[in-house]
Specification:
Helices cover about 80% and strands about 0% of the residues. With about 160 residues, the chain is mainly alpha-helical. It has a two-stranded antiparallel ribbon.
């Protein structure tokens, strides 16, 4: 709006045309201001609606995020529980394998001890028999060998 306007003074008051022009100008400005005000009100309403819509969408997204966070936490708990269960089973299986290995090793050691004992017994028996055989061999008298001349071809009369 324009600042305070001063009108020219004429015989019977102010100049009517000048005042009418100013009033018309002020009315135009008032109409423009009303139109601008309506536009601003519409923009404010639109922005308020957008804000309400965005606030609603924000709340929806926050709720969805909370639900997803709870689901992720629950999945993490389930995964951790499952991992602990798998680890426990692995420990149990490892313990069972170690027990079986120890049992097999014990059986092998028992078998080695048995074989060792038997080999010592057999060695002792074999040494005893070798000594007996040596005694028999030492006591054995061998006959004298016949003279080799008897084996010459001249002495052979079987073909004749």
């Amino acid at each position: 709006m324009s600042s305070k306007k001063e009108f020219q003074i004429k015989r019977k008051g102010y100049d009517r045309f000048e005042v009418d022009q100013e009033i018309a100008q002020l009315q135009r400005e008032l109409q423009e201001s009303k139109k601008q005000s309506e536009i601003y009100k519409e923009q404010v309403d639109n922005l308020s609606q957008q804000k309400a819509h965005l606030s609603s969408r924000y709340e929806t997204l926050i709720d969805e995020l909370r639900v997803r966070e709870r689901a992720a936490e629950e999945m993490a708990r389930i995964a951790l529980r499952e991992a602990n269960s798998i680890i426990d089973r692995a420990y149990d299986n490892a313990d069972m394998i170690v027990r079986e290995a120890m049992s097999s090793a014990r059986q092998i050691l028992v078998e080695i001890a048995r074989i060792s004992t038997q080999s010592h017994v057999l060695r002792d028996e074999l040494q005893t028999k070798i000594k007996e055989l040596e005694t028999v061999l030492n006591g054995l008298e061998l006959p004298e060998a016949p003279p080799l001349a008897w084996l010459d071809e001249d002495q052979d009369t079987s073909d004749q």
